Amino acid sequence: MPKLTTHTLRKLKGKQPIVAVTAYDAITARYASEAGVDIILIGDSVGNTMLGFETTVPVTLDMMCHHAAAVTRARPEALVAVDLPFAEAHYGHDRLLASCQRLMQETGVDAIKIEGGVELAPAVARIIASGIPVWGHIGLKPQQVLALGRYKKFGSTPEETESLIADARALEKAGAFALLLELTDHEAARKITEAVGIPVIGIGAGPHCDGQVLVAPDLLGLTPGYVPSFAHKFADAAAQYHQGFADYAAAVRGKKFPQ
After folding, report:
1. Of the residues 13, 78, 118, 242, which has the fewest C-beta atoms closer than 10 A?
2. Catalytic one among 34, 159, 182, 187?
3. What angle do CA 75, 213, 92 make, to 5 degrees?
């Protein structure tokens, strides 16, 4: 399968559902790529899922560079995107450009995902003009959770839906190659998806988007605590982990390993 690009991804809208997953290391990226996923996202969800933080807010640019570089070393055929971490998108153009430049050059990713709508569209347009592909992110923006005070669903009222459509159109006009729509009312998500000509990939946004993204530990059954209600466990890798470690410990203590 040829390497997926932002150009070929855009062509999938309305033709084939897009499959996206998160990955934070070379092993997971390799397996995901071999399974044929379209997009691998190095999400700042690494903070919640792998690093023991309660939110994505503590995740730094250095951390994202570290994990993104690990993923690209697997040489996945999927398009690889990385999250711009907390607050970076809200600095002036020079710092924002420098942060995006560092992520692209140091890690080898194909694109950068940025949380924000209408208010960030001008900054996104300038970044794209520099040659940096941007995947927009609207709906629930986890980096805003402390300001919101909670995780909440968006698009539950006509006013919220219209605001999200405005966000989507502004980012499309700015040049974003795709949108991620998080935790959004299903009917609102349908209207947003129909309102733009670029792919809309949902997470907790129902079945009417152009594709879906899930966090790898959630779909593999590796998340030890709270799992979002929209996530589905497609494997029980945790049981395999437990059994493997237990068998290893028993073999060592029983002097059956090494033989």
Report:
1. 242
2. 182
3. 80
Q: How many CB atoms lie within 10 A of CB 125?
A: 16
Biggest alpha carbon–alpha carbon distance for the chain: 68
Residue with structure tokens 């002036």? Answer: 92
In terms of pTM, does the model score above 0.70?
yes
**Residue 219: partners with Cβ closer than 8 Å, 6 or more residues away:** 21, 231, 232, 233, 234, 235
Please state, in angstroms and rounded to a whole number, the distance separating the CA atoms of residues 81 and 8: 15
Q: Is 182 a catalytic residue?
A: yes
Give CA–CA dist 186/57, Å, rounded: 27
DSSP per position, 162-202: HHHHHHHHHHHHHT-SEEEEESB-HHHHHHHHHH-SS-EEE
pLDDT tens sequence across 98-155: 999 999 999 999 999 999 999 999 999 999 999 999 999 999 999 999 999 988 999 9
Which amino acid does the sequence have at 21? V
